[in-house]
Design brief:
241 residues, Rhopdopsin 7-helix transmembrane proteins, three-stranded mixed sheet, G protein-coupled receptor activity
Length: 241
């Protein structure tokens, strides 16, 4: 017998139910959120207004800052506002949107970090061909692929969650709509779904991490015959990454 979704909204318990601690949470995370927006905004404005920062490295850094601000905005404003409420609720649709945007922008950031590592590898190990390899067209295509990959990842996550019935408890023991707390509320066996969700995110994180390690291993291998000053100069270009 197939169960239908009877839940139209969820109750978010947040980080704490204590009124005093909720005010402390509000102040701390409000300051952190403003700091995140300010820091990313400064990077975005600096790169956009400086002609000297037109290389692919800063192109990727610009997008990383944009998506980091979006990533924070997908969670923080709602969480900060909920800290002032006695009972924080979120509709089912808003919850799904939050899950999608959280994973979408988070995945984008991971992919851009990989692209920045690839960019540094080409710049350091193939300096004579750097301008012909990392053209504006190539960078644009790579960014389009990150959007496509992130969209596929987030859509898969949402599809798996929407395939589950929610017909009973609607209290999420968390400060935002996340996959694992939602699985606990499903009125069905979530073992297979949980494996698929973890495999999806785990594969992206693992492959991305291995690519980052490989890129810097290759960079260090390329620099083995350089002078100490040359290695220092080359590696200094990786600071932004």
């Amino acid at each position: 017998m197939q169960l239908k979704n009877n839940v139209t909204e969820f109750v978010l318990l947040g980080l704490t139910q204590d009124p005093v601690r909720k005010k402390i949470v509000f102040v701390i995370f409000f300051i952190f959120y403003l700091g995140t927006l300010l820091g990313n905004s400064l990077i975005i404005v600096t790169i956009k207004t400086s002609r000297a920062l037109g290389s692919p490295m800063y192109f990727f850094l610009f997008h990383l800052s944009v998506y980091d601000a979006c990533f924070s905005t997908s969670i923080a404003p709602r969480m900060i506002a909920d800290a002032l409420l006695k009972n924080a609720t979120i509709s089912f649709s808003e919850c799904m949107i939050q899950v999608f945007t959280f994973h979408f922008f988070g995945c984008l950031e991971i992919f851009i970090l990989v692209l920045m590592a690839v960019d540094r590898y080409v710049a350091i190990c193939k300096p004579l061909h750097y301008t012909t390899i990392m053209t504006h067209r190539v960078c644009g295509v790579l960014m389009s692929l990150t959007w496509l990959g992130s969209c596929v990842h987030s859509s898969a996550q949402i599809f798996l969650v929407l395939s589950l019935p929610f017909c009973g408890p609607n209290i999420i023991d968390h400060y935002f709509c996340d996959l694992q707390p939602l699985l606990k509320l499903a009125c069905a066996d979530t073992y297979v779904t949980n494996i698929l969700l973890v495999s999806n995110s785990g594969a992206i994180c693992t492959v991305s991490f291995l690519m980052l390690v490989l890129s810097y291993a290759l960079i260090l291998h390329c620099l083995r015959n350089h002078s100490a000053e040359g290695r220092k100069k080359a590696l200094s270009t990786c600071i932004s990454h």
